[in-house]
Amino acid sequence: MSDTKKTNYRWVVVTLLFFATTINYLDRQVIGFLKPTLEKEFHWTEEDYGYIVMAFQAAYAIGLLAFGGFIDRLGTKLGYTISLIVWSLAAMLHAIVKTTLGFGVVRAALGLGESGNFPAAIKVVAEWFPKKERALATGIFNSGANIGAVAAPVMVPWILGIYGWQMAFLITGAIGFVWLIFWWIFYEIPSRHKKISKTEFEHIHSDIDESVVDGEPETKVKWVRLFSIRQTWVFVVGKFLTDPIWWFFLFWLPSYFASTFKLDLTKPSLPLVIVYTATTIGSIGGGFLSSWFIKRGMPVFKARKTAMFLFALCVLPIFGARYATNIWQAVALISLAAAAHQAWSANIFTTASDMFPKRAVSSVVGIGGMAGSVGGIIFPFIIGWVLETYKEAGNIIAGYNIIFSICACAYLLAWLIMHLLTPRMKVVKL
């Protein structure tokens, strides 16, 4: 640890998290852009695709529950490494699959590996940032999800057109191993890092809880115990009701634009690039807004809750997507909703590190993430059934209108329930 100069190494750490999250979302979204190609090759129905998405979500849910406690025990550096190796290998294995069942298996493996990203990243933020900076840091790394989503509509059609769908999985899956080199070179927890100054170390730990000494927990927390705490359920409810909406934006938007507005998914897709670019602004802006409220003197929990209420309101206009007469009207409404989701996400993740001590953060994020994935298992089943029903009736657009109506209401409902569970969102004392 350097005592000679002031450092800001924590922002280097956020940069590492940003690129990991970018790769995470790039790998999971490849299949959405290959859906029309794979439907023809493997004769998928909408329900078949829904089951494949559900396989990912089910494994993701199980993995979140396991990885949260796993990372709390093993540490962020090694835990993140194992997670990335598993998901990158699974992403590459998509290239050799020959059956619909095989896709379900490799999607489950991908979900299992990718489930480690957010529990690890949120714990890293808790280790490296004081509370007043965590929402912004979370918003920055979480915006990697959007960059991955922006890269996919450019990279995947280009690779598909030149090399075929198998290479799209191989190339995107291999990128994670490049990131892993930088992770091992540049990352360590603050107490062990040689490139941060004493001033930065003290800033990081300016609001440290007494149960943590020098960045390391004195005792571990059994995750089963966390289920008895009301604040855990605040996070669980928020994730359960809103995460499935994001999965819909990731896995079904390409086919929505293709079926409704005849968008050609074999070419780079400007409408999708615009939607996912807007989410980058939402993620960083959402983290900035609650941090700005705090700097203006608003209590931490009130700042988070106020910001999240505003973002919930911003999703409501997606009701109007059913009346869109051209693709750009739909793009504008969906962009606002998707950006609001990422702004919401940056803040709801931060509430976990606000309410719980660092030694329990990964476990809480894992539990909440599992709930979000359970919602993500249920919602694709509903989506697949609704779309297939209306497709057979010759009016698939009406099916999408029903889905958008559900999306519009989800965030306000989540916010209301969260508020009723813990009106003041007090800090948990374990």
TrEMBL record:
Would the keyword Membrane be found if you checked this record's keyword annotation? yes
Q: Which residues form the signal peptide?
A: none
Q: Which PROSITE patterns match?
A: MFS
Quote the SUPFAM superfamilies the UniProt record gives. MFS general substrate transporter
Where does the record place the Major facilitator superfamily (MFS) profile domain? 13-426
Q: One Pfam family from the UniProt entry?
A: MFS_1
InterPro entries hit by this protein:
MFS, MFS_dom, MFS_Na/Anion_cotransporter, MFS_trans_sf, Sugar_P_transporter
What start-end ranges are recorded for coiled-coil regions in this protein? Answer: none
**Which subcellular locations apply to this protein?**
Membrane
Q: How does it sit in the membrane?
A: Multi-pass membrane protein
Q: Tell me which UniProt keywords the record has, alphabetically.
A: Membrane, Transmembrane, Transmembrane helix
Q: Is Transmembrane helix among the key words of this record?
A: yes
Q: Where are the transmembrane segments?
A: 52-71, 78-97, 163-186, 232-253, 273-294, 306-324, 330-349, 361-387, 399-421
- PANTHER family xrefs: HEXURONATE TRANSPORTER, SOLUTE CARRIER FAMILY 17
Protein name (Swiss-Prot/TrEMBL): MFS transporter
Taxonomic source organism: Mucilaginibacter aquariorum
